[in-house]
């Protein structure tokens, strides 16, 4: 998957084209992000990916891709903001889990020594 930016005809903004090599590539990319959004109850992000999923066809496909989907400029801005937020959220969750695991290990060792 790669993203291509194209100017819109007769407008002052752009289209953000997501190019996928095939249906499996598109499904994998979108389904992974949808699952992460669902897991974190992040409905705004989920809505953006559902829009992208509904717009997948061959209209903007290139010689390197069979399928493409698009987001408009405002949707892509929300997409990038949401990805940053979601990435930080997942990173924070991993840090909390690691801290809890370390705490558990040290408490368990402490009890063994007593």
What can you see in these coordinates?
The protein has 114 residues and is of the alpha+beta class. It has one domain. 61% of the residues lie in helices and 17% in strands. The protein contains three helices and three strands; from the N terminus they run E-E-H-H-E-H. The chain has a three-stranded antiparallel beta sheet. A hairpin with a 6-residue loop joins strand 1 and strand 2. Helix 1 packs antiparallel against helix 2 and helix 2 packs across helix 3. The protein is elongated, with a radius of gyration of 20 Å. 16% of the residues are buried. The model has no long low-confidence stretch (mean pLDDT 84).
Characteristics:
114 residues, alpha+beta, 3 strands, 17% strand, elongated
Helix content: 55-70%
- Taken in chain order, the helices and strands follow as EEHHEH
- The strands making up the biggest β-sheet line up spatially as 1-2-3
Q: What is the average per-residue confidence, as pLDDT, rounded to a whole number? A: 84
The radius of gyration computed from the alpha-carbon positions, rounded to a whole number of angstroms, is 20 Å
Q: Would you count the extended β strands for me?
A: 3
Low-pLDDT parts are: none
Query: How many DSSP helices?
Result: 3
Q: What share of the residues does DSSP label as strand, in percent?
A: 15-25%
Category from helices, strands and their pairing: alpha+beta
CA(first)-CA(last) distance? 55 Å
The largest sheet is: 3 strands, antiparallel
Number of domains: 1
């Amino acid at each position: 998957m790669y993203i291509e930016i194209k100017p819109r005809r007769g407008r002052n903004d752009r289209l953000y084209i997501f190019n996928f090599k095939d249906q499996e590539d598109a499904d994998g990319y979108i389904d992974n992000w949808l699952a992460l959004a669902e897991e974190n109850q992040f409905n705004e992000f989920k809505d953006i990916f559902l829009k992208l999923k509904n717009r997948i066809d061959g209209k903007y496909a290139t010689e390197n891709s069979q399928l493409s989907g698009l987001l408009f400029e405002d949707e892509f801005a929300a997409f990038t903001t949401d990805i940053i937020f979601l990435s930080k959220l997942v990173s924070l969750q991993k840090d909390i889990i690691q801290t809890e695991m370390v705490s558990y290990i040290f408490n368990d060792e402490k009890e063994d020594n007593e």
